[in-house]
Write a structure and sequence with these properties.
This protein is an alpha+beta fold and 207 residues long. It folds into 2 domains: 47 residues; 126 residues, Glucose Permease (Domain IIA) (Distorted Sandwich), CATH 2.70.70. 22% of the residues lie in helices and 31% in strands. The chain is rod-shaped and about 105 Å long. The structure holds zinc ion. Zinc ion (ZN) binds next to loops.
């Protein structure tokens, strides 16, 4: 007599197969979980690595480039009138209160004026009121401006670096005639005047 047993038998067979291999399955699943954890750990560490391994702002894959450094435009100087970009200060030469857009570095006439950093000479202008004005563009939208020069030794388009002699200090800056021989030094970032002491802390009087 034929009985219909196959589904039960099948089930039983499947169940037996499962029971026989349960340790295998558990082992397999455990392996998968461990592999997943290791992979995740490696991926997360790799992502964190450029930041963790480079303290001090070195160039990293995700980090910003290092800020360019600048050096003082004169070897020997004393800081005279400091920058006053918003507050009015009295100008004895012009007999009026006005902003002072840069720092005056007092020194003897004829002292060499040096470029403060790597860049390109944007312009050399001989002006009536401010003597010869040299403008140099640097990285990151920073521009340095040297006013009241004579004997300028660079021309528009020249590549310059920190220490390149641009010209000499004169007493030709009519708008600051009463302040004696000095370099009037300005800096801008993205077209806006900034206190040069921001980039050159040694020029700050309250350092
Ligand atoms: Zn000045």
């Amino acid at each position: 007599m034929k009985t219909y047993q196959s589904p039960t038998k099948d089930k039983k067979t499947k169940k037996n197969f499962f029971m026989r291999n349960i340790y295998g399955f558990i082992f397999g699943i455990t392996l998968l979980v461990v592999a997943a954890i290791i992979t995740l750990t490696l991926v997360l560490n790799a992502r964190r690595a450029p930041v963790d391994n480079k303290p001090g702002g070195d160039i990293g894959v995700d980090g910003p480039p290092p800020a360019p450094t600048y050096s003082a435009p004169l070897v020997d100087y004393t800081v005279g009138k400091e920058a006053s970009l918003t507050k009015l200060v009295y100008s004895s030469t012009l007999n009026q209160w006005r902003t002072h857009n840069g720092i005056d570095l007092l020194t003897s006439a004829g002292s060499e004026v040096k470029c403060v950093g790597v860049g390109k000479v944007e312009s050399v202008k001989d002006t009536i009121l401010e003597g010869v004005v040299v403008t140099v563009s640097h990285e990151d939208g920073v521009v340095s401006i040297y006013k009241g020069l004579s004997d300028v030794s660079v021309k528009e388009g020249d590549s310059v670096t920190g220490g390149t002699v641009l010209g000499k200090v004169s007493e030709n800056m009519m708008t600051e005639q009463n302040d004696g021989a000095h370099l009037h030094f300005e800096m801008t970032k993205d077209g806006k005047l900034v206190d040069p002491a921001t980039f050159l802390p040694e020029l700050a009087t309250d350092k």
